[in-house]
Write a structure and sequence with these properties.
The protein has 438 residues and is α/β, with parallel strands linked by helices.
Amino acid sequence: MRAALPLAAVALLGACAQLPPSNEAAPTASACPASLAPIARCLTGRDSFGAHYLIAMPTDWNGTLVLHAHGGPALGEPKPERSVEDLQRWAIMVKAGYAWAGSTFRQGGVAVRAAAEDTERLRQVFITHVASPKRTVLHGQSWGASVAAQGAEMFSQGPQRPYDAVLLTSGVLAGGTRAYNFRLDLRVVYQYLCNNHPRPDEPAYPLWMGLPPDSTLTPAQLGQRTRECLGLGLPAAQRSAEQQRKLDTVVKVIGIPASSVQGHLNWATWHFQDVVQRRTSGLNPFGNAGVRYAGSADDAALNAGVLRYAADPQAVAQFGADTDPGGRIPVPVLTVHGIKDATAFVEMDHSFRLTMERAGTADHLVQTFTDDSEHSYLSDPAYPTLMSALLRWVEQGVKPTPQGIARDCRGFEAKFGQGCRFVPDFAPASLESKVPAR
């Protein structure tokens, strides 16, 4: 039997959260990554829920803590190496004088609110065992931006607000019930063209499931299938005309570059499996009923031939309660997104603005955009620029503007190197302009 979450329980998930006072063990001294060893000391630990964490304290600490929520999400058990990788990527924060703390989260998979709890638990470890920051900025990157957006709402509704401001970078901010729909589109279009995921001689299953629970398919094996059908991983000159035709169809219909197809197909396989098996009680949170696909050589045949699924309302409500931001963030929020990001579409920022408008908090939001196609990291001077503008907003009440941030970034290049690519007049289109509504 499938145990569906009652709607009353779903509603309760949206209520204000509060962790009990921290009784976590103190962290222990650890070696910092080589690039930070001369300027910082590092501490590591594992919290009572099983999440590993890493803290870096610069010797010239400016008094502000950057509490980091990482992207992904990763699947499987948490590993301490994840936090080391995150700190290496975001070493610029420590070089700019900020303390940095990042958690692996207690579990792998698409569990937003649990990750927000783990992040807040790490903040309590920091203030209990390390130092009392003057300011705390909650930073969410990619999928971690949804964690930070949820966490800022969960823990900031009472009289005590643990976070002074929120920085969201390259964010997946449309909520799980909207952000992942295009990956179902990718699965059905790919299957229509290739018919090898699953193969005809394998047990059939609904593609919204990602994979059956007992599947042993590996990423390498899926990569072999996409190589067979689309020529992925091959130089363009080595693809057959048929492979190139099918790849071009995927690119045009789904609206992603060829270099992103494998990654999104992997997410639409193993992440979908995680969502359905572990988050929605085996029910379907993704649908494409009524979606009209366009961009192929024969759209009529494509739309007649793709598999169609209707999302289960209970699964949508259950998944949305965990992953969809509500926008009730009472502190300044600053976002940045690469305009040509093919991993998390920039149009998701339009959805997030609408979310905060509906919540009545749009005056707490400033959005910025850069001329980048990168998703995981933009440039060294961009992040200190954003942090400086965000803290000036908190401490002096000076709300930043995209134009001012673009101008100020030039001043940070002298210390942190070239890389200012802000586009102050850019405004993203709606997500529906990128992904068909449903």
